[in-house]
Specification:
The structure holds 2 protein chains of 2 kinds. Chain A is mostly helical. Chain A has 14 helices and 2 strands; from the N terminus they run H-H-E-E-H-H-H-H-H-H-H-H-H-H-H-H. A two-stranded antiparallel sheet of chain A has the order 1-2. The radius of gyration of chain A is 27 Å and the shape is flat. By secondary structure, chain B is mostly helical. Helix content of chain B is 73%, strand content 0%. Chain B has 15 helices and no strands. In chain B, helix 5 (118-130) packs across helix 8 and helix 9 (182-189) crosses helix 10. Classes of the chains: A mainly alpha, B mainly alpha. At the A-B interface, helix 1, helix 2, helix 4, helix 5 and helix 6 of A face helix 1, helix 4, helix 5, helix 6 and helix 10 of B.
Amino acid sequence: MALQKAKATKATKTKSKIKKRMVMAPLMMLIPWFLGMAFFRVYPIFLSFWYSLTNFPLLGERTFIGLDNFRQIFLNDTTFHASAIATLRYVFFGTPMVLAAALFIAFVLNFKLKGVNIFRTAYYVPSILGGNVAVSILWVQMFRNNGLINSAINNFNNATPEFANIPIVFWLTSETWAPFTLMLLSAWQFGSVMLIFLAALQNVSPSLYEAASIDGAKGWRQFRSITLPIITPVVLFNAVNVLLRHFQEFNSAFLVTSGGPNQSTLFFSLYIYDMAFQRLQMGYASALTWISLAAIGVFTLILFFSSKYWVHYND
Amino acid sequence: MTTNTKTTSLRIRRSTVGSVVRYVILTAVGIFLAYPLFWMLGSAFKYNADIFGNINILPPVDRWTFANFPIAWQLSRSNTMLFYYINTLRFLIPSIIFTVISCTITAYAVARFNFPGKKIVFTAIIVTLLMPGIAFTIPIFILFTNLGLVNTFAALYIQDIFAVNSFFIFMVIQFLRTVPRELDEASYIDGCSPLQTLWYILAPVLRPVVITVALLSFIWGMNAFQGPLIFLNTPERRVLAVAMRGLMQDEMAVQFGAVFAAATMALLPTLAIFFGCSKFFVESVASSGAKE
């Protein structure tokens, strides 16, 4: 009897010990994360806001100047205006381009075909290589004025003089085409977005399609009324991701076009880089960062709030 | 009966036509995607004169050359590509190790335990997931300048010790949700501590997601350009991605064959890893969105 009691108390003791450990252990394990959060996320954000209110040349004195940076940026900085236009154009046209390409290919792949897995893997390769400098180099070699594409056009014109001449395009050196060439580079990497769409399409229950065909909905109509509404949550997810990626695009514009011609591809991140790490104006660059952050925030929120009207959750 | 067979055969024919159309589209898109890469590979074996002015992937039959590769290998006047690969690995290997360990432990703590403030921690992870990196670069650069970390490889991996990559944390959390909790409980009853449980019981189960995290860190690290550009600014610490820029500027830029050979060699490790482990990538990307 006594033995049993002793056992029982021992058991409750270990139990409460385990319980206590269960609260302490996760907090201990989260210490690194918490430190990282504090030093590399929260603290920099506040610091960056403080910097944006100062005149802060990296190698000089930091002085508080209130909202002067912002006033200067909005009222007098023509480079900022060009940069804003370049960024917004890239976001507005590039994002739908990537989403549409990804959704279309996912739709084509979502069918019992032999070799789907091979296509799936192959289409993903550009996404994996995407940001690599080598790809930017390749893009330059393809789209230079006398690069691959234009020599192909030339060849075609010479070989078939009876057709109307296709004009040479200045892919990288005309203000009209350079942004488009960069969008094309982004669209070339649609693979990861496409895979997410494809996974969503494969989750759509076949019984829905059967029901729809009985009701006489086929092809495009079926896609529009059945498939698209079901995958709208994933469309939102992808839209937010691609939007964020496009707002922050740096590598392609820096390497392929260097922000030109005539600042037509001078995205925010390039201008901020230039201001902070070439001209070493940390205060002004921080103010630019905050404007860029605000723009990203506004557009993401618009997407989230508008989702009430176009995203369907089947709970 | 006859009409029935007719409609069936019609349906079969229509579906064959449908799949032919699909194959045509898929192949066309495949060519659009693959052509640049094959052209790059083929041009690495061409003489300068054979590269532009045609759209062939392969060099003319009797005009193959391997001379481009040694030229490309000597990437800059003072150093070979090997030197830049090693520099890349000097920040990338610690980065991968720290990322895997810190993100797994953090995800484990969030996914498996109840503690005060858990909701806040989870929200913070999601919010930082959406925070653009550009917001932190300038203050962190100044912080690192003050700490003397600028121009050391540590500048590129020190943050990874502290589980700053919310995407990876999120990925491991999502995976842990599919692992039954009974495993942990059995392990506690056997007297294991939480960390022992993670190491002995969960680590084997978590292998696929841990490998995926490591592979993705590797590939993103090979692609990383802006970080090395900002934080490392002496020639001795230049990484491959930054050194490759020389191919667009110096006298090398007109040796087109060598440019393509260098680009090919720069992409090889990534491609090898990708094709060696493609199932991890495809699965992980597909599921990161589907579980939303």
